[in-house]
Amino acid sequence: MTKKLCGTNYPVSICFIVVNEFCERFSYYGMKAVLTLYFLTYLHWDKDLSTAVYHAFSSLCYFTPILGALIADSCLGKFKTIIYLSIVYVIGHVVKSVGAIPTVGNSDMHIALSMVGLILIAFGTGGIKPCVAAFGGDQFDEEHGSERQKFFSIFYMSINGGSLLSTVITPVLRSDVQCFGGDCYALAFGVPAALMIVALVVFISGGILYKKTPPQGNILLEVCNCIGFAIKNRWKRSKYDSQRKHWLDWAEEKYSKRLIQEIKMVLRVLVLYIPLPMFWALFDQQGSRWTLQATRMNMAFGDSFTVKPDQMQMLNALLILLFVPIFDLIIYPLVGFCRINVTPLRKMATGMIFAALAFGAATLVELNVVKTVVDPAPAGKCLLQVFNLAEGNVSLKFPGSDLFQEPIRYLQDPHKYETLPASGEELQIQVTFNGNTSECYHKLLQHEAYSLVLYSDASTVHCKLVDDDITKNGDGNPLLRFLNTQPEAFNLTVGGVTFQLPSAHSMSVNKTVDRGEYPEVSCSLYPEKCSSLDLGLLDFGASYTVILMEEAGTFVGYKMEDVNANNVHIAWQIPQYVLITIGEVMFSITGLEFSYSQAPANMKSVLQAGWLLTVAFGNVIVLIVAEGAGLEQWKEFLLFAGLLLAVFIIFSIMACFYTYVDPDQPDKTYLGDSGREEDDDDHLKKKVKDVHLKRGKSTKL
């Protein structure tokens, strides 16, 4: 006899399943939240490759549920499938975490471990995805259908709760905890690995309490076999028999008419799924392109609180929890009160519009964000800025260029880079100081950025060329370097980050420091001279060069801003998150309800597999565009918005020709979105309302 929770009809076993799902979703979304920045800042991939691999992983996570369903239904059953694939899941997390430890092997080893870990995680999370919720439903007796519905609400709340907490916590573990001299990705991946171990242990602990149904055979395989037989039979015998109304009718010799009619119903829905991947192509960019956009924004809320760029993804989970009851209790009833007939397909189409508007908002934000970005030099050109440390004005003359016509003042902030021809050959630069002209010779390479440091010795000016990095920091924090004018080399520490300053007008390496005020620093060689050195605010996204000079026995730092700080506040991302979440509520949740209501009882898993495949193909679209289009980011956002609007038109036309069905009476059809009545309109509306899943389910499965 199944044990019940005290005073309820809920089996005790569901407690283990809900806790397991919470920990597993924390594990998955916690790891995924920091994944793009891991590629960018730890593996040092560029933005396009980071985005492509992120979406390739996401896509694989939604292809593998079919494999999990096949294993569970055909041979192992749900219980054993969840356990075995959870073990694969745990191994993947552990391998991924080890790959994030800098002392383990070289960069190639880190990449290899990361990819192996992600593949194992994809097989683990995807494999158990179709099993856990269904296994929870199996714990209830048939007469307790209402309790089963309430369980699913609790189950999906645990999904969103795990997602919300993980996207808040793991970015903090990544950046606020320092290990191995930098951001602690090993910990950020290790904690989700630990949660997945907890999820597995909790699930196994409830083993003796579970109701376990043996594998019944896979309906998906039967559907595929029926379709294959119909195609094969029609191909062989079409010349002898042309009386069949539908190509699936060619399977009647082997399969029942009931099964064939149900497959026809499923195929009508699957045809509607064809345009749907474009919605997911936009939706899943919250963890990739939108996170990268956040790294180039100002993330400070006042003086004491800042958010991480990868924490912004928590808004989606938070807004889902807020919007679902608002739509259920207020918006949908108001629409019905106004006698507006909003069918499920029309809701889904409206959700597409909101997602397109979200990317329109992201485009506007991006157009302002890029104003602080230094564009790389075009072909045949380079970028150059000049630091004048000579105590007087200096004039420069470059062959083949009329730039730098005005004299460069002493310690003048260069403000911006100038574009110069770059032939790759040694260039003669004429330098005039105090009426004397001297010459410097340097090679300038195309696409590169340089700083030219000028310093005087008596009446002679010397010049030194320094390579610059104009790319904004991948995690949004400022970059800092020092130009040492002292004859000796020494170390200088800023906020726990140590800089090695070479001697005699040489530049230190660019390093990441946390955003904040730095009223004091420490020196290894001249502690008393550094006591009053104040760097001021080092802001998000900026790159600074601090020229260290000695004045009146102490060091003074002249701070130059090589790359401007981020001046667009991250709060401007909130509208796009609000719009995309409204789109998710109307598109995704309604889509699940529609699929459920239009599928025969034994075919719901087939449509669930089809639904998950739309997510997989959506990520494939992003992968192709990220690697193949080569567009500026704002143009790419605009392209996606335009493509989804085009898909909205196609989907709306397809919806007009779709007629709703009663899965229990597959020979009857009802009202289409075109407004055509076929048979019993009132019966349809009541039936669709009765069989809709209880709203509140997120697609974060």
Automatic annotation (TrEMBL):
Keywords: Membrane, Peptide transport, Protein transport, Symport, Transmembrane, Transmembrane helix, Transport. It is a multi-pass membrane protein. SUPFAM superfamilies: MFS general substrate transporter. One of its GO terms (cellular component) is membrane. CDD domains: MFS_SLC15A1_2_like. One of its GO terms (biological process) is protein transport. Pfam families: PTR2. It is found in: Membrane. This is LOW QUALITY PROTEIN: solute carrier family 15 member 2.
